[in-house]
Amino acid sequence: MDIAMAARRKGKRRKKEQAEYFFDYSLLFIVLFLLGFGLIMVYSASYYEAFSDYGDTTYYLTRQLAANILGLVAMIVVANIPYHFWERFAVLGYAVSVVLILLVMTPLGIEAGGARRWIGLPGIPFNLQPAEVAKLCMILFLSSLVCKMGKGVRTMKGFLIMVAVPMPIVVLVKEVTDNLSSAIIILGIALLMVFVASPDYKKFIIMGVIGVAAVAAILVIIINADTVEGFRSARILAWLDPESDALDKGFQPLQALYAIGSGGIWGKGLGRSIQKLNFLPEAQNDMIFSIICEELGLFGAIAIMLMFILLLWRMMIIANNALDLFGALLVVGVMGHIAIQVILNIAVVTSTVPNTGISLPFISYGGSSVMFLLIEIGLVLSVARRIQLKT
Question: How many domains does the chain have?
Answer without folding.
Answer: 1
